[in-house]
Each structure stands twice: as structure tokens, then as C-alpha cells.
Design goal:
By secondary structure, the chain is of the alpha+beta class. The protein is built from 4 helices and 22 strands. The radius of gyration is 47 Å and the shape is elongated.
């Protein structure tokens, strides 16, 4: 160490000055660092906290659902036509009526057909008596085999004529070929009904189905009787239970799809011709990690969610995390990774957020609100008396 008494007076003076400057610089640096930290803290305090609503990441049930739209159609739907030409004399049903199979819907005038039927029946009975007599004679070898065969032929002809007359008589009563509901009546009493004229339409609502076309990559997941749901916007988004009734055994080459017929468990108010949204439940997970769809924000075709974390000095901030969905439903998303149960995600207010934004939770006091001035000290302070000179 250099002793100051060994230096010349001039060098000693310079050395002492340098030591003083060094001390001042150190003191200045210390004050500057502290001022910088205070400034940074003050900046954090001045950053406005964004009001957000949060919810916890939870575990629960989620379904893998394939959605399609399709019109409803009835598989049991028939048009009833007249099979003979006669005037209509009695109408027994109306549109909207439910009918059973073979129930009489309309009666036509049948005088001629009834007369032909009775005459054919009488001739058949007479021919049957003649044949019985001829058969007895043949057994006793009293007539030839040719005469016996002729008697058989005559009986057969009379029987065929009777059957034709019976059918024509029965055609004067128009009957329901299936069970269902009358959806069209195009005849009234007194109309001349021609053979082949369409006069009724019957639909069995229990046969109502929706036919959808599913991309072929879902073929391994399709199976008969798998759960389905049908939703009608017309009926206020009412959900109707359904099931996979049939799966086509082939893939349509041009479209790359499979025809799937979805049946209804109970048609309720659904009617053929209505459009419905069809949801096929491909898979169900009972203990999946779930984040609400309301938390999702989109950026360049990617999906993100903001999670809450507590920064320095207890300041609440958010982190932006990429969401890679495994399954989605109408309410939740099952992310592939990056989230833990109990974490809080932002579900409202995220539009104004960015990475590391300062936030305050709904219901928390606003840290940026101005506090009222404290007047206690000035109120309780003793009065100062100015003494005169």
C-alpha cells in the first residue's frame, strides 16, 4: 500500500481527489439502481389491470361427435290408388287420421260388382255339384277319364271366374295397405273415381329416418345401434333420441362417403320433410380434462387460451397457451396437453389481453381506483397559534 507521506505533496493531492471521486461514483450508482427499481415498480403499478372472468380447468365427460344435416323421410310411405272405376259413395277417413292396415278408407258404388260376384258364386256352386257327381261316376268306372278331366277343367274355370268377381267386388272398398297416418286425401263423395287414380297417401311416422353421408375415415368407428341425436331448429332446438339403423356396406367412390341411416326412438313432433341436425356420438370419455370453449381465442388459424399466474408482488397476470383439441363438444374442449386441473383460464375479457397482461378477477377490488385522501391527520392535528412579536 502506498503511504501518502511517501508521495510528493502534488501526487498526494491528486490521489486524495481520486478517492473522493470514486466514493461519490459508488454512491451515485447505488442511488441510481435503487431509483431504477423504484421506477420499474412504479411502471408496473401504473399498468392498468384488465377486468376478466375466470373459471377452473376441470375433469368431466366429453363426447366425440360427428355433425351432419339432413331432411327427414319416411321409409313406409305409400300412395293409395283406386283399382276399379266407380263413383265414391262413402268417405271414412280424413287427413291426419291414424289408420290400421286393411282398414276401409273409402267405399265406391258396387252394384255391378256385387251382382257379378253373386252370379259367379252361384255358377261355381253348381259346377262343384256337377263335378262331385262326375267324380263319383269316375270312381265307379261309369265314365271315361276324359270326361272326368273335362269336369275338373270346368270347375277350375268357374273357380277362377269367381275369384276375379270377388276381387272386383273387394276393389269397391279402398283399404289401407299399411298402418300409418293419412297425409293426403284427394277424393270426395260423389267423385267419379277412375282406376289407377291416386286418392290417398299414408305415412308411418314411426318409420321416419334421416339419411346422412359420413366421410370414409370414420368407418372404423361406425357400428349399428350407436347413439345419435337429432335436433330441430323448427322445434326450438329440441333434441330427439336416435340410433344408427343401417350402415351401407360400400363407400361411394366419387364422394368418399358412407350412407348411414339414422332412426328415431320416438318421432314426437318430428315430421318427414323437416331438416334436422344429426349428431353421431363416436366416442365418450368420462374423465377428460376440459376447458370451456368460451376461453378460446383465435390467431392465424390457431387456438389459444389465457391462464392465470401470479407475478411479482402478487400481481395477477396471464399467459397465452396453445390449445390443440383432442375432442370438442358444444361447451368444452379436451386439450391434448399444456393444462392441469385446477388452473384458472379466462372466459370473458380475453379480447384485450396479450402475453403477460395484468388482470384483475371479476369481484376483486380495482387496484387502479383512486383512494380518497386521508384527512384524519389534518383533522386531529393541534391548531398552531402564531405569536406576535
Amino acid at each position: 500500500m502506498i503511504q501518502t507521506d511517501q508521495l510528493s505533496p502534488r501526487l498526494a493531492l491528486l490521489f486524495a481527489g481520486a478517492m473522493v471521486l470514486a466514493g461519490c461514483s459508488a454512491e451515485s450508482n447505488g442511488k441510481g439502481g435503487k431509483a431504477g427499481a423504484d421506477k420499474k415498480s412504479e411502471s408496473a403499478r401504473k399498468e392498468k389491470a384488465v377486468l376478466v372472468e375466470l373459471t377452473e380447468v376441470k375433469r368431466g365427460m366429453i363426447e366425440s361427435v360427428l355433425e351432419r344435416s339432413a331432411p327427414l323421410e319416411a321409409e313406409a310411405q305409400v300412395e293409395v290408388a283406386a283399382r276399379t272405376s266407380n263413383p265414391a259413395i262413402e268417405l271414412l277417413v280424413e287427413e291426419g287420421d291414424t289408420v290400421e292396415k286393411d282398414q276401409v278408407l273409402l267405399r265406391l258404388e258396387s252394384d255391378k260388382q256385387k251382382n257379378d260376384h253373386d252370379q259367379a258364386k252361384s255358377q261355381l256352386d253348381k259346377e262343384q255339384v256337377d263335378f262331385d257327381r262326375q267324380e263319383s261316376l269316375y270312381k265307379d268306372n261309369l265314365i271315361s277319364e276324359q270326361e272326368y278331366r273335362n269336369a275338373q277343367f270346368s270347375l277350375t274355370q268357374r273357380r277362377l271366374a269367381f275369384e276375379e268377381a270377388r276381387r272386383q267386388f273387394e276393389y269397391t272398398e279402398v283399404r289401407a295397405p299399411i298402418k300409418g297416418t293419412i297425409t293426403l286425401r284427394d277424393v270426395k263423395v260423389g267423385d267419379q273415381v277412375g282406376s289407377g287414380r291416386k286418392i290417398f297417401e299414408i305415412i308411418d311416422f314411426d318409420s321416419t329416418v334421416a339419411i346422412i353421408h359420413v366421410p370414409e375415415q370414420y368407418l372404423p368407428k361406425l357400428r349399428p345401434d350407436m347413439e345419435a341425436r337429432l335436433i330441430s331448429n323448427t322445434l326450438g332446438d329440441t333434441v330427439f333420441g336416435g340410433y344408427v339403423k343401417r350402415i351401407s356396406p360400400i363407400v361411394e367412390a366419387r364422394a368418399g362417403t358412407i350412407k348411414v341411416t339414422v332412426g328415431l326412438k320416438e318421432p314426437g313432433a318430428l315430421r318427414p320433410g323437416m331438416w334436422v341436425d344429426v349428431e353421431l356420438v363416436l366416442e365418450t370419455k368420462q374423465d377428460a380434462l376440459l376447458i370451456p370453449k368460451k376461453s378460446i381465442v383465435y390467431d392465424n388459424d390457431q387456438t389459444f387460451a389465457y391462464t392465470l399466474h401470479t407475478g411479482t408482488n402478487g400481481v395477477k397476470r396471464v399467459k397465452r397457451r396453445l390449445v390443440l383439441p383432442l375432442n370438442t363438444d358444444k361447451v368444452n374442449i379436451e386439450p391434448s396437453e399444456g393444462f392441469e386441473p385446477g388452473e384458472k383460464v379466462v372466459i370473458a375479457g380475453q379480447s384485450g389481453l396479450k402475453e403477460n397482461s395484468r388482470v384483475r378477477e371479476l369481484g376483486d377490488p380495482d387496484p387502479d381506483a383512486e383512494q380518497p385522501a386521508d384527512t384524519t391527520a389534518s383533522t386531529n392535528a393541534p391548531a398552531t397559534t402564531k405569536s406576535g412579536t
